[in-house]
Design goal:
The complex is a heterodimer. Chain A is of the alpha/beta class. Helix content of chain A is about 30%, strand content about 20%. The radius of gyration of chain A is 25 Å and the shape is elongated.
Chain lengths: ~475, ~350
């Protein structure tokens, strides 16, 4: 590169609790280039961007702007160095006009970038009346009005239609051709190949590839993203043909087209997806908890759901462990006597589960809020399994858990499958999906497909990214 | 755990804080605080007559309205419109009571209570409808409906329900048969028994029934109630608000059939608002509401005594009430934070 770098991140390390998000990651931006950042969920792309924006302070490593070492303690520091960030979620205020939102972002100091950024944008229209594409453009415009010369974009195309993506990329390219530098986080390989000059691929917090886009292919990028195919023990039980129970023929929801995939009793189905491809909607429509009202996809009471967010969706922290263990099962004849609830029966049930599932709690009356994350998840699982479901849907069931708790959850899920429950488990960690699933469903842009039996990391990864490979 | 042992302590601390503020205010304003508080005590609990005819008579509407507030708050819905539903109940009760001549007393009284209950539920039904249909916050709609109800009372007592001479802005008295029996030698009516029964009943419903469990679940964790419990929060809060309004309406009916026997403006000296304090100080516990209802009934009664004997304006007591409530709310927030930080510590340790 003849150009001197405008922004350099060297050997950045950052951890959240016990999770090491970045393990010595580098990123070098030069003026005039669009630099794509690729990686799986949790690879550290967004974290790296947030470090460059001053939102996160790294534990180790160096940041240089125009060759001078700087310390970025806040987005304001970053702004002072000409770094502007566009977040994944829109940050404009819907009821204010375009002009007002720009003024709000710019504050007292700002500059006026030219190049017709505001074309087709009605300055006096309230932002909520704009299309998603224009709102995304406004986010970039706001960053440019603050005088940014280095633009960090966190998945800007996630919510856009194809036409809008093209416009967005054109805008980004123009900014670069005028001397700006752009870092662009994306999941989409075609965007990288068509719009970026350089690409850096992260995996597990480390850079696995940093090179000009020229000479790269979808295959080489996918390989860098997913790494070497992970070895996995496929415990296939081909001998025992699954009983043709007419259980959940998955129903099409608005977001997911499911085709004719049928899941049988006792199967453990892993769901893999790059976040935001409709996997959440798939799980929730299966679990019957979509949006506003009940959509019983299956026979009522036959589906148990383990939601990703324990503290707001899985549990009621202010209620006791016993109460949480019967949430949704309050009509169960084991303790419901007509309209009356027999609490001593509930407590007996709870004590039994506390013992059986090894829940660390001071007793059935302890508030769920006083339990650790792993024990809270045990409560959620115990309740789900004790409802005697035919189908168990689990959404990131080991999120935030330590190794022991994770192993425990896996064991419980496998046990449920062995007992004849159809277990459908999604995890944002592909390795976990591969480890657990007998069958793997992949959700890509709202379409569900099934990976061939015994498919390895690479095959599933390709499906997740929508790569067609001649085989 | 710490949050669990504290309710009584909190309530005690709040009451002490409230009285401290009252004393300080009296001192600063140049009154003799001891004389004033003495008068307050005598007016509230100082004699059998003060206790029964002043304090307990005021405690009845406060308890029933406090229960109304508790039903809604426990479901996570903030019914600030107890005052309006009370008036709706009072209007209906008066109208019914005026047209019952010749009925046997038990039927007459039942009829009065029934229409008051229905009227209270009907009044809050506007707010429920607005909430479920258009997402209008019930805090705002119930509050604003208070003013409408007060205007409706003004209209009723100067229009359709005005007494025959058309001189005073008040209604004809209700029929004798519709009036509640009094405790001999006092002004305390038998409605207090109903208030006690309702408190016990509500406590049983909240703690011992499926319905009460669902209501508490929705109040404490609406997302979890829906996602993990398949309990519809809209349905539960809607019904809770209707029951809340019904109770508040019944309080209005009790006041008309037991105390005033007729309808007039300012029938309630803000019972609907004081009841929020009653319910909060009791931590929304139905049985505790009986105690806090008597306490606040005593404050209301004592305030009158203080004004008579020490010349201290009765509204000063409202300031003390406010301090009590703020203390309770503050303690609540702190307790929640304590639990939160405990959980964080646990999670760090287990991570």
């Amino acid at each position: 590169m003849s150009e001197a770098p405008v922004l350099e991140l060297h050997g950045i390390t950052k951890s959240f609790g016990s999770v090491q998000a970045l393990r010595g990651a580098d990123l070098v931006l030069t003026a005039g280039e669009v630099h794509a950042l690729l990686g799986e969920n949790g690879a550290g792309k967004s974290t790296l961007l947030h470090v460059a924006d001053g939102m996160l302070v790294p534990e180790g490593g160096q940041i240089r702007v125009h060759g001078r070492e700087v310390v970025l303690r806040s987005p304001r520091d970053a702004r002072a160095h000409g770094i502007g960030m566009v977040h994944q979620h829109f940050t404009s205020i819907g009821t204010l006009t375009v002009a007002e939102n720009i003024a709000l972002a710019v504050g007292r100091r700002g500059c006026r970038p030219d190049s017709g950024l505001l074309e087709r944008m009605d300055l006096h229209a309230p932002v909520e009346s704009l299309s998603v594409g224009l709102r995304q453009r406004l986010e970039i415009v706001k960053a440019l009005f603050t005088g940014a010369k280095i633009l960090l974009l966190d998945e800007p195309s996630a919510a856009l239609a194809p036409g809008e993506v093209a416009e967005l990329l054109a805008l980004v390219r123009r900014f670069a051709s005028e001397g700006g530098a752009v870092a662009l986080v994306t999941h989409k390989l075609p965007e990288v190949l068509s719009a970026a000059d350089r690409v850096t691929v992260l995996r597990n917090g480390k850079v696995t590839l940093s090179a000009p886009v020229e000479g790269q292919s979808r295959d080489s990028l996918a390989l860098a993203m997913l790494g070497t195919p992970a070895s996995r023990n496929v415990e296939t039980s081909e001998a025992s043909a699954p009983p043709p129970s007419e259980l959940p023929t998955l129903r099409p929801s608005e977001v997911c087209r499911l085709g004719h995939i049928v899941i049988h009793a006792g199967e453990m189905v892993g769901v893999a997806a790059v976040e935001g491809n409709g996997e959440r909607e798939l799980l929730r429509s299966l679990a019957g908890v979509t949006g506003g009202g009940p959509v019983p996809a299956l026979e009522e009471g036959s589906v148990a759901f383990v939601p990703e967010d324990r503290s707001t969706e899985g549990l009621i922290p202010a209620m006791s462990v016993a109460e949480n263990l019967v949430l949704g099962l309050e009509r169960d004849p084991r303790w419901a006597r007509g309209p009356r609830l027999d609490w001593s029966a509930v407590r007996r049930h709870a004590s039994r589960l506390i013992e059986g599932y090894g829940i660390l709690a001071s007793g059935p009356e302890a508030a769920a809020a006083t339990l650790s994350g792993g024990n809270q998840q045990k409560v959620v699982l115990a309740r789900a399994l004790e409802g005697r479901p035919r189908v168990l849907v689990a959404e990131n069931p080991t999120r935030g858990l330590d190794l022991r708790a994770t192993a425990y959850v896996h064991e419980q899920l496998r046990g449920a499958a062995r007992a004849g429950v159809s277990v459908i488990v999604y995890s944002s960690d592909l390795d976990e999906v591969l480890e657990l699933g007998d069958r793997i469903l992949v959700v890509h842009q709202g379409q569900v497909s099934e990976a061939p039996r015994g498919a390895d990391r690479q095959v599933v990864g390709d499906l997740m990214l929508g790569i067609q490979r001649a085989r | 755990m710490r949050a669990e042992r504290s309710p009584l302590l909190t309530a005690g601390a709040a009451i002490v804080a409230g009285f401290g503020a009252l004393l300080l205010g009296l001192l600063i304003a140049g009154y003799d605080p001891l004389l004033a508080v003495g008068a307050l005590w005598r007016g509230a609990f100082g004699s059998r007559d003060a206790l029964i005819s002043a304090t307990l008579v005021r405690a009845v509407p406060l308890i029933v309205l406090g229960l109304a507030v508790a039903v809604a708050f426990r479901a996570g819905a903030l019914n600030i419109g107890g005052e309006g539903q009370f008036y709706a109940g009072a209007i209906a009760a008066t109208w019914m009571g005026m047209h019952l001549g010749g009925w046997p007393a038990p039927f007459a009284i039942t009829a009065v209570w029934l229409v008051a209950t229905v009227a209270g539920a009907g009044w809050i039904a506007f707010a429920v409808l607005l909430k479920l249909r258009f997402g209008v916050l019930e805090v705002i709609s119930t509050l604003l409906l208070n003013f409408v109800a007060e205007a409706a009372v003004s209209y009723a007592v100067t229009g359709p329900l005005q007494e025959a001479q058309r001189v005073y802005p008040q209604s004809e008295p209700i029929a004798e048969v519709a009036r509640l029996p009094l405790l001999p030698g006092s002004r305390l009516h038998s409605g207090i028994l109903l208030a006690l029964v309702l408190a016990a009943l509500l406590w049983l419903i909240l703690t011992r029934t499926v319905w009460g469990f669902r209501l508490r679940a929705v109040g404490l964790g609406p997302r979890a109630a829906w996602v993990s419990g398949r309990i519809s929060p809209q349905r539960v809060t809607g019904f809770a608000l209707l029951w809340s309004g019904a109770l508040a309406g019944l309080a209005g009916g009790l006041e008309v059939s037991g105390v005033s026997y007729s309808l007039y403006q300012n029938l309630s000296p803000g019972y609907g608002f004081t009841a929020i304090a009653v319910a909060l100080l009791a931590r929304l516990h139905p049985l505790a509401i009986v105690a806090t209802g008597v306490l606040f009934g005593g404050l209301e009664a004592g305030a009158q005594g203080m004004q008579r004997e020490a010349g201290v304006p009765a509204v000063t007591v409202a300031a003390a009430e406010a301090v009590i409530i703020i203390t309770v709310l503050l303690a609540d927030v702190l307790a929640r934070r304590q639990v939160r930080s405990r959980v964080d510590t646990l999670e760090r340790e287990s991570a």
